[in-house]
Amino acid sequence: MTAVVTRLTPAIAPSRSHRLVRQLSNVSVLTGRNLVHIAREPLQLSDVTIQPVLFTALFVYVFGAGVVLPHGGTYASFAIAGMLALNLTTSAMGTAVGLSNDLNGGIIDRFRSLPMWRPAVLVGRSLTDLLTAVMCAFFVCMTGLLVGWRPEGSVESTIAGFAIFLFFSYSLSWGCACLGIVSKGPESAQGVGLVVLFPLAVVSNALVPTAHMPAVLRVVADWNPVSAVTAACRQLFANPNPSAAMHSWPMQHPIVTSLMWSIGMLAVFAPLATHLLVRRTRG
């Protein structure tokens, strides 16, 4: 029996490695396809190029004149982490719109006729949106530097702050993938996504300190994942972080909380999106 197992093991190993290589190849091809679509229609990137610049400049110069931070500091230093949160959260609906477009355009039916790894559609979409999130963070950062923002922390902590934001954006994109799959069309995906994501970004500490919010709203804001990610990055950037004075657990441990939210969303939404895609394309 031992001899039989020994002879079979080498034959099994190449099969598994070949399957992994094929899956990675499928993902890279579909990611490249999505990037080609963006290159052919660059206006798709307006929400991660033009919007971050406009939002950052408008909020800093309009809100900045009326917001007084509890412990001092400039609004520009306070606002950039919030602008990252606002733009990365609202732009995540692009995942839902893009996936809904593919499902309703018939291309997924063509993919089903090919010997490909079915979840590659989702993974390729999520990686494409991660690349656009990097672009969004770059434009917010450059605009922030122009309006006077400076990260006061170490280089390592600053990089960690951006990494936390990108991980959160990647996890959120899987939730938006679920929305895109269950939506009847791109318009409904965008409408529902806006209704969900915009309040998520606004009812937080991204734009203003939460200390003067009504009690119920303040609790919601303090436990909002966007607030946790924003507070974590302000802490890592060593920028003004009024939320550190709040006594809620998420605001006292924002880095741990933001990682817990991101890991939790990824653990829930990635399998759910895969299940929903298989169910919708079954037949």
Question: Could you explain how this protein is built, in words?
Answer:
- The chain has 283 residues and is an all-alpha fold.
- The protein has one domain.
- The chain is built from twelve helices and no strands.
- The chain has helices at residues 2-40, 46-62, 75-91, 93-105, 107-112, 120-146, 155-182, 186-202, 215-222, 225-237, 249-252, 254-280.
- The protein starts with a helix and ends with a helix.
- Mean pLDDT is 88; it is low at 1-13.
Outline:
The protein has helices at residues 2-40, 46-62, 75-91, 93-105, 107-112, 120-146, 155-182, 186-202, 215-222, 225-237, 249-252, 254-280. It is mainly alpha-helical and 283 residues long.
Strand content is under 5%
Q: From the alpha-carbon coordinates, what is the Rg to the nearest angstrom? A: 21 Å
**What portion of residues is helical?**
over 70%
Report on the biggest sheet: none
Number of helices: 12
Give the topology.
Layout: H1 2-40, H2 46-62, H3 75-91, H4 93-105, H5 107-112, H6 120-146, H7 155-182, H8 186-202, H9 215-222, H10 225-237, H11 249-252, H12 254-280
Helix pairs in contact: 1-6, 2-3, 2-6, 3-6, 3-7, 3-8, 3-10, 4-6, 4-7, 4-8, 6-7, 7-8, 7-10, 7-12, 10-12
